[in-house]
Amino acid sequence: MTKNKISNFSFGILSVILLTIGLLTFIWYSPTEIKINNPDGKTVDIQNRYGLNIAVSIDTVDRSRGLAFMAHGFGGNKEDDNILSLAKIFNNHGYSTIRFDATNSTGQSEGDLAYANSITYRDDLFDIITWAKTQEWYQEPFYLCGYSLGAVASIAYAENHPTEVKGLVAISPVVAGQLYITDVYKRDIEDWEQVWLQLNKLYLYSQNHGDTHATRWLPLILDIMRFNLIQSADKLTMPVLIVVGQEDLLAPPEHQQKLLQAISGDAELIIIEHGDHFFESGEHLKDLIEKVENWLKIH
Predict the structure, then answer these.
(1) Which CATH number fits domain 3-298: 3.30.300.30, 3.40.50.1820, 3.30.30.10, 3.30.70.1230?
(2) What is the pLDDT of residues 99-132, one digit of tens each?
(3) Which residues does the UniProt record annotate as the domain Serine aminopeptidase S33 (predicted)?
């Protein structure tokens, strides 16, 4: 065997071992009742099913045509440039937006990034929407717009409540853990070095936002290995826009293509030339905003 094949084989064995460990060690929270702590004003705190406070920003527009829920990615928050830019698109088109800091992230909500995973992100979004349904400004159907892990949560909600969702924008969603196992035998060492560089970018972002446990992303990777968005994608009957960077190695375009093919409704995949997993600023963010705005004009 060549050196690259041996290394890839070893990585495959390691991935299986880590997946097994993750399945044995994952801890489920005991849900509690959702509570509203501060129902007045445009920024509120609500308590999720796990008893943690979630900071929520409500950006209303006059004569609102509807709502759009915005969900940030792993280690991010509701003030990220990509989330603010996306929310502005919906605001400009007459939609009020709901942005929130997921728990166990870097924003104003409670929790520790060390315990972030797809389940906590998903449940936070579900709890935010459950709370929103009690508010006088609530409108249905609504849009969901998520980035990375926020896109995973958005897709999960849309799959479970398709009649409530007018349209879904999923940016760089991680599609299925098992696809990474398959990729082990397709990528060479140089590719995997780039994967680790993009993961390190997540680490550095979290460090810059003051999180002291940002190195504990291994449980997140184990968590990602458990889910598969493709399995229930046929329930996505609403219009869907998927956007991904051409050079995204954390949520590769070929994975997005598999998700696209499984969706039963009107779905479109846009690949941003030379983009990676992050749409933080510059031309890639500009391209993303343009594509989403063009899609929103006709959906």
Answers:
(1) 3.40.50.1820
(2) 999 998 888 999 887 788 888 999 999 999 999 9
(3) 64-196
